[in-house]
Predict the 3D structure of the following.
Amino acid sequence: MSHRIPVLLVLIALIAIPDSGLQAQDQETETKMRDAGAAVEVYKTTEDAEGAPVSLNAYVFYPADHKPTDRRSAIVFFFGGGWKNGTPNQFVEHCKYLASRGMVAMTADYRVLNRQGTKALKCVADGKSAVRWIRQQADRLGVDPERIVAGGGSAGGHVAACTGVIKGLDESGENTSVSSRPDALALFNPAVVLAGIDDRPPLDPEKVAGLPERMGTDPKALSPIHHIGAEAPPTIIFHGKADATVPYWTVQEYCGAMEKAGGDCELVGFEGQGHGFFNHGRGDNSSYETSIRQLDRFLVKHGFLEPPRSQDSPRLTTIDLSNDVDRQVIVDREPGQYLGHPTTCLLEDGKTMLCVYPKGHGRGGIVYKRSDDGGLTWSDRLPTPENWSTSKEVPTLHRVIGPDGTKRIIMWSGLYPARLAVSENDGLDWSPLKPVGNWGGIVVMGFVEALQTGPGHYLAMFHDDGRFFAADGKRSDTFTLYKTFSTDGGLTWSAPQSVYQSSDVHLCEPGCIRSPDGKRLAVLLRENARRKTSHIIFSDDEGKTWSSPREVPLALTGDRHTGKYTADGRLFISYRCQSPVQSRKDRVFEGDWVGWVGTWDDLVEGRDGQYFVRLGDNTKGADTAYPGVEVLPDDTIVTTTYGHWTKGEQPYILSVRLKLSELDRR
């Protein structure tokens, strides 16, 4: 079992990281840093192992509008390399991003074995000197001395952790009345366990015997987990769960020790990722993007950054339409009867709209209605096949076209087994619900997206927590996001394949949006554990492969995102406003039916967007908003959902009509 791996293997593996060939940084590194926009500062003059003088630089990235009189938060990063080699270049992109967000961000050199012949003890001393120097120079640097963060990767993460939790080890002669302890830590696959814990067996005796010489002291003196106390600063750790250099269990132990001591430690694990996964330039940069935005959120949470704002809209505009009754159309209402979870389908004539919803919370007989005037008025409840009354979950409507051009409408009903009904005459007649395969899931399907791989090709996604995927399913702590494909216009579907699964992040209820140029797919995902904001994934190959999930801004966080483009290229996305537990007090429309207006680029860049709109004031908890969104030929948005719109009464189905030009005038 992985938790029985000898703990000192971590240290040996880090020492064995191959030399990158960048032993002589000095002028080469300084030139690269200046070219990247950094100011060069000498934070320490010291000696190498032979007594020769050494100047250590801090490379400082300032915000564009920075002034020396500012009191900005600051962060200093320490590079990885097994205390043997490495370069401050590792964290340039992290610094540039955080400077763009308003921090004074820097990456610092420190002494290592291959250049200065020094031991790990000196690495830690240099890290402490760097933090102390920032605090001493705070007035000149425009920094708040009480808002300093230390960060780093691997051995550099170890250096940063030591500055936060280990007392002493300071460079002799420095003014220790100025604290070298940072106010927060940001650690990337850090080495935080360097000596035995819980009586776990050490490595073989020959290797263990050489550790004190390599460290320059007893390894336990440099093992952060052995020094955690109540004064440890709030910490976030990013770590690959498949890290073979620094095993994942070591950071789990570290966070557990922090929490036991009363500290705040947040561990962000990355499924299937190994050592160094977070570096800019690694793979498609999705892990870098996810980790930097998670770091952003952590820094906002602890007061080191202001919440992010869109570049195009300095302040996200909040609009409340919930009292505009002239915009509202009641689709269906029945005293004493719960009506919920509708979806809609707009036909090609731009005015015929179909709507289905269950009599109950997800489970219940399916009600079917039709509008012939773009949702202004609705028919009575229409006849449906008898077995529609046996629906176990939310029904969803989708327009599909077969390889031969035949137009159909399909309706999914989930849980086990997933079932499908079909209409071949635009909803005038329907088939009964029939099983699609020997599988099922929750909210089948969140979307059905036409693909460019061939006529009649479609992608759909759903999720499950183990209960409904198979006939004998049982609930688990793991949520799995599945994909399935059709090549015959939605009549038959492939065996579902896992896109992502995790026991830490519960991603579900996918909603798909295609890029304006048609080349990229984005899927927005609810985070059901309520620990993090909603997530987004991207595909550049028509759904074959997907990027690692990353969080979206709080402004777009919620459940069951459904979005469409308007004529000017902007997006309108409808969803339920439901936030991570720690953020709920910051959301003005928590538990309500809301909409978001922004652009595709806002999704890609993780920006707030333009408008945050309350569409309906839900009066009972968060029991609302499985929305349909349709855009009429005149650019009117018709969005439809259920909610407790009248206090003390059962929920009913409501549409809201709006144009973005109306929001612009507001």
Summary: The radius of gyration is 28 Å. The chain has two domains: 39-302, 317-664. Residues 317-664 form a domain with the Neuraminidase fold (CATH 2.120.10.10).
